[in-house]
Amino acid sequence: MSVEDDPAGDGDAAAPDAPSSLTMEDVAAAAGVSRTSVSRVMLGQKKVSEDTRRRVFAAADRLGYVPNVLASELASRGTSTIGLLLRDAANPAYGLLFTQLQEAAHAADLTLVSMTVTADNRGQRQVAGLHRLMGMRVGGLIVATGGVTSEQLEPFCSRIPIIRAGRPETTEHIHAVSYDEVHAGRTLAEHVADAGHRDVAIVVTAEGDSYPEFVRGTTMAATLAGRGVRIIPVPVGAGPRGGVDEAVALATEGRVSAIMCPSDLRQLEVLRSLAAAGVSVPGDVSVTGCDGVLHGADLLGLTTYRIPVEQLAVRTVARMAELLAARPGAGVVAERLPGVLVPGRTVGPPSSRKEP
Amino acid sequence: MSVEDDPAGDGDAAAPDAPSSLTMEDVAAAAGVSRTSVSRVMLGQKKVSEDTRRRVFAAADRLGYVPNVLASELASRGTSTIGLLLRDAANPAYGLLFTQLQEAAHAADLTLVSMTVTADNRGQRQVAGLHRLMGMRVGGLIVATGGVTSEQLEPFCSRIPIIRAGRPETTEHIHAVSYDEVHAGRTLAEHVADAGHRDVAIVVTAEGDSYPEFVRGTTMAATLAGRGVRIIPVPVGAGPRGGVDEAVALATEGRVSAIMCPSDLRQLEVLRSLAAAGVSVPGDVSVTGCDGVLHGADLLGLTTYRIPVEQLAVRTVARMAELLAARPGAGVVAERLPGVLVPGRTVGPPSSRKEP
DNA sequence: CTGAAAGCGCTTACAG
DNA sequence: CTGAAAGCGCTTACAG
């Protein structure tokens, strides 16, 4: 059990010139076999005698040997691990996606190595993460952030399979498994229209800030317009409170009877603001969000749309496995997964005091 | 800009025997310099002529070359990247920690490569993740899961710096930066006692399931007992609803006037159950949780304790940076960071109908 | 079933 | 400032 067997006899980890890095050579010597045999045993290959196997494992355990993955992958020129480029996981939807992807990958016997990138001015950091992952020579790449553009991805998509997860791709060359944001926007908008609202504020996200949220907003607007509902778009991020205050003001003035948000986090902000202003929900104004992954959303009674995170993770990993097995350049796929409306207590019929 | 310069002239990525793997050799040839020079340029070393540098960069860009990190680290025998062993990020507190660690690492100019492990019977997967990371020869390791024991970590703590984050260490040899769970438990318990409760149910987590939650529960019990409050411990995970039903039953029967939970997620479960049973909070019964990282907790009015996630992340990364710079085996540290009570609307004075 | 040898793509003294 | 050469720790045909 001792880790400090230390063949060199130079005590502990203090030996300056003899790094604690055990190699296969050490194990081979300790086991009395060749380096090749050790390699075969560690690789789990069949053509090894039971005796050799036992001795190698014994020596490895005793020395605390862990094979150097770097050298291994370099020599065998190929990684089984696949890279995951993630967006700031502070967003609960991304956090869940992260977890689910890990789980799906494990189930598919794929090792994921991830790198989170936080948004910055020019996407510099995101690209750095991309290069880092490519430098690790991952066998495939899952991109779950909009921060990296298709153009930045393209140089590599002929080298390894790349799948964009959670966001539709604009390019033809890159695979994508995304949520059906159009369905989300339409479903929510129809729910609001069905409730009888005729004047609705829509908090819209800029295309560059979050493409998925942008699509939701656009779709909500189109759907509502198609139903003859008057809409007032409120761009988010404009004011200090990101357009929330403006939407709330519209409600306070009775100019709208409902506020549709592009995400649940935004919906929370609106609800806070409304509560502070003493406006009742859904008595005075109805509110909707989108995502459906917040803990306690049910207790809050949020009206939202649950995106199929688990399914997305499973589909993404499944496609990656397929691509890994197939020849590169096989047919590009673009899946879109619909979610489901979650009716809540934040939507009701329009209030009677609607007219200004 | 074209990536398909393809010197070999065998078109696209289809060439079966000529993998798309560009090497320094290719760049050297294209730039008309030696491999050594390319290396020096990519490494950003000073002793290179401006002309060489320019030509190398030009060639690299044109070919779409990304240095092979594996080979690089193998040759220079050392990684700058540090490994992060994470727990299932479905827990919102871990999700936040993950994000914050990434951010802190980036600020400290450290690259983090993470591996998430989901709980399993014997911690097999967790150990596999640990070995995988060690196999990548990371320069340091941050362990943010209780799934890996100190014993499993010890064999490696003389090789690289290892810090346990978010959970106190039981061993002397391993560094730890954790939340002050004792302070959390004490603070919450005193808040409840101060409100006048004399009969309290405490939902307790088993030591093996979550050590931090276990400490919280133990401390709450001790603190309450010290104040002369009668407590009824309800082990979590016992029944199908994990002890929640039992706690709620105690409240329904009027045997306790408050329920203290070891986490906010658990608190949410209790609140759901209470609502379903028609029990009012805090009218009939008060409820507390712990963590304070849930979105919308304020709207729900949860009474909780906010753990200092951001601070923990920063401290952990800072210590890692120190350890990386210092000699291994330097003084082991064990920091404990206190958080702050978040009073909410789920705690009030005990109801008058307390007696059964 | 087992070994000696070449090679994976880089870095790094060592001589120019 | 620049190159040729050795070596990082493994894997993998190739001969036994």
Automatic annotation (TrEMBL), chains A, B:
InterPro entries documented for this protein: HTH_LacI, LacI/GalR-like_sensor, Lambda_DNA-bd_dom_sf, Peripla_BP_I
Regions that span the bilayer: none
Region: Disordered, residue numbers: 1-21
Keyword Transcription on entry: yes
All residue ranges annotated as the HTH lacI-type domain in the record: 22-76
Keywords of this entry: DNA-binding, Repressor, Transcription, Transcription regulation
UniProt GO molecular function: DNA-binding transcription factor activity; transcription cis-regulatory region binding
Coiled coil, from the record: none
Biased composition (Low complexity): 10-19
The keyword Electron transport appears for this protein: no
Protein name: LacI family transcriptional regulator
Gene source species: Georgenia muralis
